[in-house]
Amino acid sequence: MSETDAPPASGWRAWGERPWVRRLGWVARLLFFAGMVTWMVLKVNAIGWSQVARSLPTNPLFYLLFVVTFLVLPASEIAVFRTIFARPLPGAFPVLVRKRILNSALVGYSGELYLFVWLRRVIGLRSKTIAIGLKDNAILSAVSSGLVTLLLLLGFAAAGNGRRIAAWLDPGPALLIAGGVGAVFLAPLLFRLRRQLIAMPLALAARVLAIHVARIAGVVLLQATQWAVVLPQEPWSVWLVFLTAQMVISRLPIVPNRDLLFLSAALEMSGTINGPREAMAGLLLAGGALTQGSNLVFYLLTALWKQPEVESREALAAEEEEERTA
């Protein structure tokens, strides 16, 4: 088959694997990172480095809440994947921590590839079973994230916070606009659900969706509490603004290191608070530094975790042969 006759999907895949395309992607990620860092440096310069340094959080509860928030995702995914694959997953926690780090620091779904390899080589699941399970989980996770984002957008508008962006908006029109924005986020997800039906039974899908919604709602509450510990005088409506921005940015596809993008946006928004701006900047920079530092620390720590051996390599090879001949 000639290149012109190749299916579009395989053609795009081959194009994406070319060395110059890979190098271009690496350069684009590097430029994005440099741009975000430069922007943050300029914003902190405008506030004053010494003021920000003196305003860094000193309450230990701030840092404890950060660690809990960081580990909520991998902890909840143990329950998720045990439910999906209907079997125990010994040694899964450090792998899921690495999955979180890869998705956060690199490009979205790079962590899923790492998890796929681990489930295949260490746990011994069949490739088709893993692929279907990860696909179903990705859809349900995206739906739950979209639902929480929509609720935050509706709460953002209902509280009259639309005036922070456009002073001419009343809460009523802002509510409609936020609902429309939320629908834009949800429409592709619902369309994807229609085109690519979830393979798992409805009851099982509902359980997985409930775990994801509970996890995201818990993270949102923990994040707001972490900020409120540092600036208790600020109303919760202020944190609603930042949480909404964070959730919207988290839904952006193919954006490397979305944590840095949110940090840049939040520094720009820090002038909207009633308290000292340098305190908000110190809070945000501490959170950003903790995120990047934790990615490195937890990645190194998980490398020390000994993985269990595959239960039966012979059975694994037999299943692979069965998949190839099926």
Could you please describe the fold and organization of this structure?
With 326 residues, the chain is mainly α. It has one domain. The chain is built from 13 helices and no strands. The protein has helices at residues 8-16, 19-47, 49-54, 60-85, 92-105, 110-123, 127-158, 171-195, 202-230, 236-250, 258-269, 277-302, 313-325. α5 (92-105) packs antiparallel against α6 and α6 (110-123) runs antiparallel to α7 (127-158). The longest helix is centred in the middle third of the chain and has 32 residues, at 127-158. The radius of gyration is 22 Å and the shape is globular. Residues 1-13, 165-176 and 310-315 have low confidence and may be disordered.
State the helicity in percent bands: over 70%
Q: Work out the radius of gyration.
A: 22 Å
- Distance N terminus to C terminus? 24 Å
Low-confidence stretches: 1-13, 165-176, 310-315
Q: What is the overall silhouette?
A: globular
Number of domains: 1
Query: Structural class per helix/strand content?
Result: mainly alpha
Please write the string of helix (H) and strand (E) elements: HHHHHHHHHHHHH
Estimate the strand proportion: under 5%
* Topology, number of strands: 0
The residue-averaged pLDDT reads: 74
Largest sheet: none
Number of helices: 13
Keywords summarizing the entry:
single chain, 326 residues, mainly alpha, 0% strand, globular, disordered N terminus
